[in-house]
Amino acid sequence: MTAAALSVVIVVVFFLALYLLHCYGDLRKQQRLVLLGTLLSWYLCFLIVFILPLDVSTTIYNQCLHYNSSHTPSASHGEQYDQPDSGLAFSQRSRFFSEANVCVKPWSYIPDGVLPVFWRVVYWTSQFLTWLLLPFMQSYARSGAFSILGKVKTALIENAIYYGTYLLIFILLLIYVAVHLKLKLTWTELQTIGIAAANTWGLFLLVLLLGYGLVEIPRSYWLSSSNSFLLAMAYFKVAKLATEKAAAEENLADVMEEVAVINESIRFNHTLRKCVDTILTKCPTRYQEEMGRNVENSRHEHDANPTKSGLIKLHEKVISAVQRHSQTQVQWSLLLDEAFHLEDVAKSQSSPLRVITKSSSSNHLGWVRRFIYSPTVEWYWECVFRKTFCRLLAVLLSLLSVAVVWSECTFFSAHPVLSLFAVFVLKAEQHYNYISIEMVCFVSILFMCVCVYSTVFRIRFFNYYHLVPHHQTDAYSLQFSGMLFCRLTPPLCLNFLGLIHMDSGISHQDRIQTSYTSIMGSMQLLPVISDGFYIYYPMLVLLLCIATIYKLGSRCLNLLGFYQYITDNDWTSDLVDEGRELIRRERRMRQKAEDGQNRRLAWRKRYGVQATSGQGRAGYTELNDNDDSPETETRISVTGEAGNEHEQQTRLLQDNPSDDSLPSRRSTAGWYLSLSPSLTGIFDDVHFFICLYRLHPTAMGGLGNGRRGGRAPPLMVAALIACILVLGFNYWVSSSRNLELQ
């Protein structure tokens, strides 16, 4: 059972880390080393969280065996008088173990020697990743060099400067500690000091993130029970994202102008042409085509004299600009869908049919979800059950947050035991209820990890670090998140062991240490950290929770110009109104595009015109309705070479894919498109006969063999007369319908 439980946990945690990496990263396009490093760092951190409860239950069982084998009831009472500082919690455990004759073996017991090796491999691998490998790969992935050697050189220089400063500070502090405490530094003591320094850095950041997550997660679930709040928040995000989207597009256009200048300056016989071609491959396709046409038409020389270092910097700018533009486009589309859905839910709350009425016919759900999550089920969830579920979950999470804050402020008290988690574990331990022990440990540490990790996923350092779902996170942010996880998880686990009084370095109890604590070494080597920082600094979480309740951080960011959603703020109201107008405009554009597409489909089905979507007549101006983008781009189809006459004539048979038109649409051939949407396609049949005659003159009776002066045979004349009569009748019918509607 032990091997099965451990194997199941290892496999489940691996697929959990792989799923998260799939959601945030692009498994097909990003570099394999980047994905491997990120997956390994996430996997090891999640594995620590899931295995630690098994370590706690195994340690409690070993403590029972140790006490029953080496103590008698009389000796245990004498030991309590000889060691008055052992604490009430340990005396209670001693009385319990002395009264028990047989120790019940836990269902998830792990044999001796397995966990120490496991923790040592996991811990030192994660530390190697966070301090050496991931920073190097981070600089390597962000480098704009054009060769592997150049990227390695750039990464080594950046990390040498950054971590050289850290190493110098660490050496100075190490000398001060050795002289002040009069220590003889051995390899074990150096290892313990290094672990203490890493855990101190991680605990400093951990408390900041934990104080935010303990309040924000329950509050977010409580507020999400209100559809009006979610809709206002969506409007706010739309207004902010519209500004970011415009800035990203402008930045991309500026960078592409620089690339165009370099592309025209460096000809194909230049030594740096390979570097320019590499940069061009990173540009969007439409810019590549435009630059190719400009190079063919450009015949003047530019004064620019680019260098390789300049091309490296330009390469970095291109990668960053393209990635940021892609992120904003995907975020914009998803945010619009979310806002449309919330508006549909708000309109359907009072619906007597109890069905969510969709404003758009597009449906991106899979067939399984469409079958289970029907419109009726969706209405009951969105309008009836979701509000109650979110509020109950918010209350439950709030109770857990209160328990964590109370335990963080009182876990140093061993007599009496004030930490709630220590009380729960002690009560379950008295009845050999190892499943309850593991469940309490797992739920509490999982909640703390969610509070910390969710903050890591939410925070954003300008454009340098930002985890974006739907495969839009860049390599730099993925590896930075892996570094944060590896630095936050070990101090989080140590802090949790202190909350349940399983860390003797903090609780000062004479008991067997967990296998995880044993690899950390004795923190008593540095009493300033073990008796001071580790005990009193976590109390700061109470002040951080109070600051988060009153949104002091968000208000400070608002003063600095980084606007956050605050209900009693004028800027928030203005952005909500702006977002509402943007949503209305995008809804009208989508509805207009959808109506035009439906009219085209109905017309083709009615008159049997077979046309290919997305293509138009040669030389005509097209309006392509792109459902993925909120903007409609006007594109002009370019006529091919004169020798390719058959291809051009074939394209004349294809219908124009859009009914929406602009004023003064005039083609290069001198023909005007109709401005009346009700008469669109009225001359398609005439056009069909003309094109059919141009392509196959013999199909209509061999009219003049393509010559202008030829006479029309009777069959051709009859066909044209019949066509004119049919068109006249159709025009009369459509005009009559318009008069009736008016």
Features:
mainly alpha; two-stranded antiparallel sheet; 4 strands; 69% helix; 2% strand; globular; GOLM1/CASC4; transmembrane helix
Helix content: 55-70%
Number of strands: 4
Strand content: under 5%
Q: Determine Rg (CA atoms, Å).
A: 35 Å
Mean of pLDDT = 77
**Topology as H/E string?**
HHHHHHHHHHHHHHHEEHHHHHHHEEHHH
* Count of helix runs: 25
Quaternary structure type: single chain
Biggest sheet features: 2 strands, antiparallel
Termini Cα gap: 80 Å
Shape estimate: globular
In short:
This protein is mostly helical and 742 residues long. The chain has helices at residues 2-24, 32-70, 73-82, 88-99, 114-142, 148-181, 187-223, 227-265, 273-281, 285-297, 308-348, 367-372, 375-410, 420-429, 434-458, 475-499, 504-507, 515-518, 527-536, 540-549, 552-559, 570-607, 645-652, 684-695, 714-741, and strands at residues 460-461, 465-466, 621-624, 633-636. Helix 2 (32-70) runs antiparallel to helix 5, helix 3 packs antiparallel against helix 4 (88-99) and helix 5 runs antiparallel to helix 16.
